[in-house]
Structure formats: C-alpha cells, structure tokens
Amino acid sequence: MSADAPHIRAGARKLRQASAVTQAVPEERPGPGRGTARNDADSTQAKGRASLWQATALRVGAGILLLAIWQVGAKLFAPSYIATPVGAIGAIPGVLGDSSFWSSTGATLLAIVEGLAIAVVAGTVIGLAMGRLPDLNRILGMYVGAFYAIPLIAIVPLITVWFGYTPQARLAMVVLEAVLPIIYNVAEGSRQVSSVYLDVTRIHHAPWWRVWGGVVFPNATPYVLAGVDLALGRAVIGAVVAEYVTAINGLGYYIIFNVRSFHEDQGAVALVVIVLFALAVRALVNLTIARVMPWYRPAKEA
Amino acid sequence: MSAAASAPERQPRRVRARAVAGYGSGIVLGAVVWQVVGYSTPQQVFVPLTTTLQRLGQLISSGELGSALWTSFQSYLVGLALALVVGAFAGILLARRRLLRVAFEPYVIALYATPMVGIIPFLLALLGYAFWPKVVVIFLFAVFPVLLNTQRGAQSIPPEQLDVARVYRTKELGVWQHVIIPYTLPFLMTGVRQSLARGLVGMIASDFFLSADGLGSLLITASERFDTAAMLAITLVITAIGLALIGIGRFLESRFARWKTT
Hints:
Chain A is built from twelve helices and no strands. Chain A is mainly alpha-helical.
C-alpha cells in the first residue's frame, strides 16, 4: 500500500500537469531556477537512487555557492584581514599545530561537559521535586520561569564579581545556563506520570523511594535528555560569553585574541570547532533518545 | 502533596487560595532571602533588595537607564523587524521551492544551532562599534526560529487549498496573499515568540561587545566599578523586559492561533 502511494501520487500529478495549461501553473513558469525546481521535484518522486545523489550534489553545490559568495564578497568589499573560506582552510594546519588551540579547546569543551553534568544532576533533582510537590512548584516555579525567560548572559558581569576572572566563573555560567531547561523539562515530565502507575504503587503500599526510583524517575529520563538538548546551545553561549568577558583560556578567548591580532582565519577555524562540537553533542543526544527511548516524542522548543 | 492532588474536585476555592498563598509566599520568600543575603555579605558581592531599588531609582532619575534602554531597543526593534520579514519570506520560499529546500535546508538548520555569539568578534573587526553590527547580531539570533516555523507552517498547507488556487489559475503572488500567508501566520507567530526571547539574548550580547552605550555596556561599566547595586538593578530591569516580551509573544501566538484549524 505504502509502496504504491508515491506512484499513484506521481501519476495524478502527471495527469494534472498534462491537463493544465503549462504556463498558468505557478511552478511551471520558466525562469531562473524554476525549471530546475520542477525537474528536481519529478526526480524525487521517482524515488530512485539518483534523486539521493542529486540531493547530495545540490546540497554540496549550495554550500560551495555560499562559501564562494563569502570568498568573493570578502575579497572585493572587506579589508584583507577579514576571514575567508580559503584563508580558513589554509589556516587549519597552523591551528592544529598550535598548542594553545588544543589547550583552549580542551578547557572550553571540558567546562561545558562538566557544567552539563552538574546541571543534569541538579536539574533532575530540582525538577523532580518541583514536578511532584505542587507547593514547592508554586514557590520556585516563578523563579525558574523568570530565569529561563531572561537572557542569562546578562548576569555574566555579576558572576565575574563573585568568582573573579577565573575558570570557575565560566563553569558557573555553564551550569546556570544549562540547569534551567533541564529543571523545566523534568518538572514538566514528572507532572505527566500516568496516574495509573501511581495508583498501582499506592495499592501495593510502595515506600516513597520506590515510587520515585521505580516510576517517577524512569518516566522523567527522556525529559532529562530533551532538557540537555535545549541546554547545550545555551551552555555554549554561556561559556563563550564568559570567556569573552573574563579573558580566561578557552575557545572564546582564542577567537577574540586571534581576531584582535588580525588572525581572523585562525579564529574562524576555532568558531567552526565550536559549531561542530555543538552539532555533534546534539546529534548524540537525539540518537540516544531515538535508540534508548523510541517511544518518546521530543517536545517542541519552548 | 496528596491533599493538593485530590482537592480540585472537592474544594476549588480552597485550592485557589492555596495556590495564591504559594505564589505569594514565593515572592515574599524571595524578597526576604535577597534582603538577608544582601545584609550578610560584603557590599561588592550582593546588596539588599532595598538598596537595589534605591539604586534603580537613581539610575532612572539620572536618565542613564532611559537612554541605555532607548539605545538598546533601537537595534533590537530593527533587528527583530528584519528577522521577521526575511525569516517569513525565506521560510515560505523554502517551503514553496523544493530545489531551494533540498539545497539550503541543512545549512539553515546548522546555522540555527550555531552559537551566534561566536561571530561577534568578527563583526566587531569588520564594522566596529556601530549601530548596524548590533542589528546584524540581533537579526542572526532571531531570524532562524521565524524561518523554520514559517517553513513548517507553509509546508503543512493542505494540498486541496493549493489545488483550488491552481484551478482558478491564481498567480503566485495571489497564492501567497490568499492561501499561504493566512494559513502560515499562526506558525509565524510561534516563531516570533521564540525570536523575541532569542533576540533579547542577542541584544545583551551585542551590547556587551559592540556598543559603548546600551543596557549591556551599562552592566559592564557597573561591574568594572564593583557597583553591585547597579548590576542587580539592571538585571531586574532586564528580567522585567524578558517577562514582558514572553507575555507579548504568548499573546500574539494565542491571538493568531484562533484560526489555526489543526
């Protein structure tokens, strides 16, 4: 049935195309890019292996186009020290051979991982408590909601006063940024424990720690991971802004230092490393959710 | 816990009273904790709520806060407006043109995940301390939620609606005007809600590093003077702004959700 469906739809479309006056159909109008759009649509419907190839070629082509626009634009309109794709690729060997790059990368990524770990533990505990204890939720809920709503990087200056210009300031920032979406998600998730399960525990006179360990916590695990997914982007922003302000060793400082000393290409390589790290951890989290908890449908971003 | 859980059917008024008491005690507790911590720590670390409010009053009456707010919000509003227009247009375009979607969607998603604070030093080197680099940062923070939500909306238009337009040989412009934009607007508003918050992060970040006068630079200056009261006062203002924007975003979303059929 499902194998037939595309054929039928493709057939219907052919019929429609055949009967319609070609030029009246918006998608059929000739023009730059439009003709190829139709070709691409047809080939995708054919569901051949060729369409996957075409899609990949299109994507790679689009990426090259974007980089080319950047390259040409930077060469024509910008001062010579501005980062360009060619320059950044040329800078890769130098950056990889630079020991300060490796120590910066290690410092930032370790701080993010460490902060995420602290945030997961603290966020899960607070979130579970808030989700299951309505009174606590009323008292703490508005503070969590308020801190989740505001740009937390606004408190970086305060954090630098409290922790000084130290790596602890960055860690504190990462934890703060990461803990809020985890609390929020876990509280939301533990509120959605099916009351049937809780009734069963009540019938069996289960002690509170078995209720929490056996029902509430397992139910909340996917929400913890979903929280981590949301927390990661915030954690990276927190770490980088903290490094900009405090000038401690890290990728954010590596970027700012290189850009200020007119080595933008090297800075661009570091930025790409940050982006790749963020994408990799997100992919890992989503893969874990899909593999370990296939029943879970991730919530939309709040 | 069990009392609150089983009460709703029996005594709604008592539950409401308990909820009000909960929220009220939360506010009072927060204020008391702030006050106590403020008194028991050195002045550079934390100051009591009352001192913070006094400093807030000074900042308002001296006009510092007002002018900083005005500077910051100019770039915020321009950046957000640009993000709205460009994001909505690009979103519909990606939904309508399969070629563009296949080609550019992975890059849009990758850019959405990119921590945009990373490009601030590059913008600073290219454009210096000015109005437009701040707008660019806010735009980049805010554009992708609008774009992706609009695209999701425009792609979920029932084919029958487009077919009707096609039967009447509606021009592309008419299809946009009468089918796509009305159908997509609620989705766009979800994007706007997310963008309002993300744009604010962009505003503070660009204020920190791309501006000599604005809310963020007021914060940095206060931190360099160890003026904790001013920092707390400005943070309070930013919190109020953040909550207000969330409220506006939720209002817009629910206002336009009314005609969302699915």
